[in-house]
């Protein structure tokens, strides 16, 4: 019976031009699905690319997951090796951070200072990959060198070799004239460029130099910075990290990047969802057009349906005829939309360049990342909407009463 329904549905689909207006509505619905799916793929790919670049350029520079402990984590090297066996964690290195003011002869700015062990962080840090080779190696203990972002260097009007002053709120001492912040002069030994807002607000110094600046006991480790395969997994991995240290009798607390940059990525995610919703409405409108075209087809084929029923065709088989007919329109629009959307997404920057359109500025391309999972969601969602759109016309065809329709034939 399925083969019979498929054959009749295909014949009806090919013969749709017998009703000119129904044919127009059908073509309109196919074009709607085609444009909706293509636009959804292109926009989703661009938003994925934007999110991926933000993840790399911002979360690659700031701590993704930090472990805090009141106890001295003197076995941090062994802990790092053990933590790296947890799926999703690349490694762990000691860290210390402080909010500070940085002063040059030309200007002053607020900055977040991180103390790092260069020989350890160089393996994982994205900052090391976005500065000249060996920049992290200049952060030698006792040399008081500092690595700053390109935008911060521009604001302070400094270059490699210049000296700047760091003033930390941690390690304040009280004198007869009031609280005096801890301060020390540092030499700019390197400049990194992540291509994001962190270039204006981050600085890296040696771990022990940071402890001296903050007036902490040099050599002790109370914080570990964890590098993750996917920063978005920080909240999932935090309980596993706590459980790992709990087994060793060490009580720890954790914080992650969401405290500082969670609002930014939440806004990007909301914008991506809203854009997907709006473009999905194009597909929904096209699905409603399929309803209109099939209803007109049912009206046009009422006599044929009645004859088929008198010859023993069952009600489910009649419904299946029109479901198949409507599905042909959806599948054609979907295939065309996927092809056009994927091709446009992969060649978007070339197309914009040919048209002379510049969105991000000279020399910058739109980030594009096509997600297979999103493609599957788009395909599944489109097929589901169009399938639901064929239900009402199919039910209308199933309700045809042969005796009433053929009474005067």
Strand order of the largest sheet: 2-3-7-4-6-5
Rg of Cα set: 32 Å
Structural class: alpha+beta
Tell me, what's the shape?
elongated
Strand-residue proportion = 15-25%
Low-confidence stretches: none
What letter string, H or E per element, gives the SSE order?
HHEHEEHHEHEEEHEHEHHHHHH
- Helix fraction, binned, reads 40-55%
End-to-end distance, in Å? 27 Å
Mean pLDDT: 84
Tell me how many strands there are: 9
The main sheet comes to: 6 strands, mixed, barrel
The helix count comes to 14
Describe what you observe in this structure.
This protein has 409 residues and is α+β, with helices and mostly antiparallel strands. The protein is built from 14 helices and nine strands. It has helices spanning 2-14, 20-57, 76-83, 118-121, 126-129, 150-156, 207-213, 234-247, 258-300, 302-310, 315-346, 348-355, 372-398, 402-405; strands at 65-69, 89-103, 108-116, 145-149, 163-175, 178-192, 202-206, 223-228, 252-256. A six-stranded mixed barrel has the order 2-3-7-4-6-5. α11 packs antiparallel against α13 (372-398).
Topology:
Blueprint: H1 2-14, H2 20-57, E1 65-69, H3 76-83, E2 89-103, E3 108-116, H4 118-121, H5 126-129, E4 145-149, H6 150-156, E5 163-175, E6 178-192, E7 202-206, H7 207-213, E8 223-228, H8 234-247, E9 252-256, H9 258-300, H10 302-310, H11 315-346, H12 348-355, H13 372-398, H14 402-405
Parallel strand pairs: 3-7, 4-6
Antiparallel strand pairs: 1-8, 1-9, 2-3, 2-5, 2-8, 4-7, 5-6
Helix pairs in contact: 1-11, 2-9, 2-11, 2-13, 9-11, 9-13, 11-13
């Amino acid at each position: 019976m399925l083969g019979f329904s498929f054959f009749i549905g295909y014949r009806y689909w090919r013969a749709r031009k017998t009703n000119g207006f129904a044919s127009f509505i059908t073509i309109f619905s196919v074009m709607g699905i085609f444009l909706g799916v293509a636009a959804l793929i292109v926009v989703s790919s661009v938003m994925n690319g934007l999110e991926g670049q933000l993840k790399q350029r911002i979360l690659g520079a700031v701590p993704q997951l930090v472990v805090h402990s009141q106890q001295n984590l003197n076995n941090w090297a062994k802990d790092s090796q053990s933590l790296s066996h947890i799926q999703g964690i690349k490694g762990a290195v000691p860290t210390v951070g402080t909010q500070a003011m940085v002063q040059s002869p030309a200007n002053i700015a607020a900055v977040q200072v991180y103390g790092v062990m260069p020989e350890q962080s160089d393996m994982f840090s994205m900052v090391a990959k976005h500065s000249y080779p060996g920049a992290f190696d200049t952060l030698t203990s006792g040399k008081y060198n500092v690595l700053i972002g390109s935008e911060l260097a521009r604001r302070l009007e400094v270059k490699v070799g210049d000296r700047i002053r760091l003033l930390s709120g941690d390690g304040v001492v009280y004198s007869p004239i009031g609280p005096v912040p801890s301060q020390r002069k540092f030499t700019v030994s390197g400049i990194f460029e992540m291509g994001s807002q962190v270039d204006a607000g981050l600085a890296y110094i040696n771990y022990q130099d940071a402890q001296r600046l903050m007036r902490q006991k040099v050599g002790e480790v109370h914080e570990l910075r964890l590098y993750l395969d996917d920063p978005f997994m920080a909240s999932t991995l935090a309980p596993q990290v706590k459980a790992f240290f709990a087994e060793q009798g060490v009580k720890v607390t954790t914080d992650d990047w969401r405290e500082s940059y969670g609002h930014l990525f939440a806004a990007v995610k909301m914008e991506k969802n809203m854009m997907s919703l709006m473009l999905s409405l194009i597909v929904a409108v096209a699905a409603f057009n399929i309803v209109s075209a099939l209803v007109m087809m049912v009206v046009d084929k009422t006599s044929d349906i009645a004859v088929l029923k008198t010859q023993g065709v069952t009600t489910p088989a009649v419904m299946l005829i029109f479901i198949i007919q409507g599905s042909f329109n959806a599948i054609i629009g979907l295939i065309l939309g996927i092809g056009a959307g994927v091709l446009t997404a992969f060649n978007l920057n070339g197309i914009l360049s040919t048209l002379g359109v510049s969105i991000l500025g000279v020399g910058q391309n739109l980030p594009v990342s096509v997600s297979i999972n999103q493609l599957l969601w788009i395909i599944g969602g489109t097929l589901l909407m169009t399938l639901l759109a064929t239900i009402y016309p199919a039910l209308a065809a199933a309700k045809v009463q042969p005796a009433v329709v053929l009474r005067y034939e």
